[in-house]
Structures are given as structure tokens and as C-alpha cells.
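testing teh design pipeline on a random one, pls ignore if ur not involved
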């Protein structure tokens, strides 16, 4: 006598699939929330009238780690106070950061962090033709 009540069924086990899906979703959400970014605006090249405008402030990071603010040397220990003084009365708090060839990436990031702590709201990169990389 054949047992017809006990037939074989092939159901898909969805529990492992749901476990993997849940782990992937948690990983994705964790990576999205842990992402930190800094907005940077690239200026358009200027020719003519705006080139004579002295309102732009450029912080140069040299290869030896020294700083120049509008082509004037600034000591690394006085950079924060100098930037805070410069931006104290300015309504637009925009700084252009130029890293020269051979400048360490960490030195450029440190300069940007110091500028942010001194009150700079927007950090941009100057056009390549305005500051040559020495």
C-alpha cells in the first residue's frame, strides 16, 4: 500500500535568503550614515575685471608644510588666529586652498580643518592659471 499522504514537496527555504538580505541592508545603512564629506566648489576662471578684485583669499600650502595667505607667509601656529582675524568682519567666508606640488595631503587637510575652525564656510580650489604649482 502506497502512502499518498506522505508526498515529497520541494519548498524553498527563505530563511537564509532573508538573513542575507537583512545583513546587506544593515551594512548599506551603516555605510551611508558613516560617510563624511566636505563640500568644495570649483571656481570658474576669471579674466578681466574680477582678476583685479582683491576680495579673494588664497591659502597656499607649500611643499615644506609652510603656509602663505595671499602670498604672505603665515606661521603654522598662528594660522587659526590669522584666519579668524581675516574673516571676522567678512560676510562671505570663502577661502581658496592651493596645494603646491610636493605638498603633503595631510598638510592640506590640516589647513582646511584649521580654516573651518576659524569660521570659513566654503573652501574652494583656485583656478590653475592663477596660482602656479611651484
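output:
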Amino acid at each position: 500500500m502506497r502512502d499518498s499522504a506522505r508526498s515529497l514537496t520541494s519548498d524553498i527555504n527563505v530563511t537564509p535568503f532573508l538573513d542575507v538580505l537583512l545583513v546587506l541592508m544593515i551594512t548599506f545603512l551603516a555605510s551611508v550614515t558613516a560617510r563624511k564629506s566636505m563640500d568644495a566648489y570649483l571656481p570658474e576662471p576669471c579674466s578681466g575685471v574680477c582678476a583685479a578684485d582683491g576680495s579673494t583669499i588664497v591659502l597656499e600650502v607649500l611643499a615644506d608644510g609652510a603656509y602663505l595667505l595671499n602670498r604672505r607667509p603665515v606661521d603654522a601656529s598662528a594660522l587659526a588666529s590669522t584666519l579668524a582675524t581675516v574673516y571676522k568682519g567678512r560676510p562671505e567666508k570663502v577661502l581658496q586652498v592651493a596645494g603646491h606640488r610636493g605638498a603633503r595631503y595631510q598638510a592640506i587637510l590640516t589647513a582646511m580643518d584649521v580654516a573651518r575652525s576659524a569660521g570659513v564656510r566654503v573652501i574652494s580650489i583656485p583656478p590653475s592659471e592663477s596660482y602656479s604649482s611651484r
